[in-house]
Amino acid sequence: MPPRRMxxxxxxxxxxxxxxxxxxxxxxxxxxxxxxxxxxLFLEEGYDLLLVHGNGPQVGNILxxxxxxxxxxxxxxxxxxVAQSEGxxxxxxxxxxxxxxxxxxxxxxxxxxxxxxxxxxxxxGFRKPSKPIGPFYTKYRAEYLMKRMGWLMVExxxxxxxxxxxxxxxxxxxxxxxxxxxxxxxxxxxxxGGGGIPVYRNDEGRLKGVEAVVDKDHTAGLLACELKxxxxxxxxxxxxVYLNFGRPDQVxxxxxxxxxxxxxxxxxxxxxxxMGPKIETAMAFAEKVGNEVLITSxxxxxxxxxxxxxxxxxxxxxxxxVSAKRGSGRKR
Length: 332
Description:
332 residues; alpha/beta; Carbamate kinase; 2 domains; 10 helices
C-alpha cells in the first residue's frame, strides 16, 4: 500500500458567495456543493485533506446583522462573529463534502474545528489597524461608536465610515494536536476558518479574544508547515499567478522559484490586498518544508493537479528559472 499523502487546501469565502450574488443561504449551499465535488478529487487521488476557508463576505454579513439589531439584542464582539462564521461555513461545507464523498463511495468522516489562533498583542498590526470590516456607517453613527466603543473608523471613498481592525500574523494554531490526530484517522478536517479566532494570553496567562482578523492564507500556511504537507494548494479567482497583471504585457507565471517570487514581490507585482499574502505564504512553505505550492482557481483544479494549469511555487533547489507565458485572466 503506497504511503499516504496530505494536502492542505486554502480558499476564500468568495468560493461560497460568488461575484454578483446576494449571498443567500440557498446560493451558499449550491456553491458549497459545487466546490465539494471538486475537492473530492483530492480524496480520489489518495490524499488526506485539510481545508482552510475564508470568511470575508460571511463575517461582514454577520456584522451588518449585529448593527441592524443593536437596539434589540446586545451586540457581539468580532472574535465571536468570526467563530459564528467558522461554525456556519464549516457546517455547510462539511455537509456538502459528506454528500459528495458518499456519492463517490469514499468512506471518510468530515469534521470541523472551531479554531483559535494565538496572536501577539505586540504585533505591529495592532499599532496601526488598517483592515476595513463590516458595514458602512454615517458620520454621526461613526463618531458615536468611536466615542462609546473605542473603535477606529475611517471614511471609505465617499461611501461612509467603516471600522478598521488589526490583521496580526498567527503565531500558533491552538487545536493543532487535535487536527493532526483527525488527519491521522483519515478524517477530512475543516479548520482555521477565516484565519481562525484571534486570541492572546494576558499577563495571567489566560486566553482572551481580540478585535482583529487573521489572514486565512497565513493560517493555512502555518498549518501546512507544521503538518509538513506533501502539497499546499491555494485556490483563488485566477487560473494562474500573473506578472504585470491587468496590463497589455500581462504574462502568466507557470513556475516560480522562491527567489523569483521574492524578487517579483519586492517589485510590487503582488499587491498586499490581493496576491501578496498568497505569495508570501507560498514562499515560506516551499522554503521551510521543501514541497511545492499550487496556486490556481477552483474551476481549473483538476487540470492544475494534472500539471496542465496553475502556478507552482517551488524551492530554489528544485526548479528551473521562472516560466511565464502571455495570457489573459480574470481579475483576482
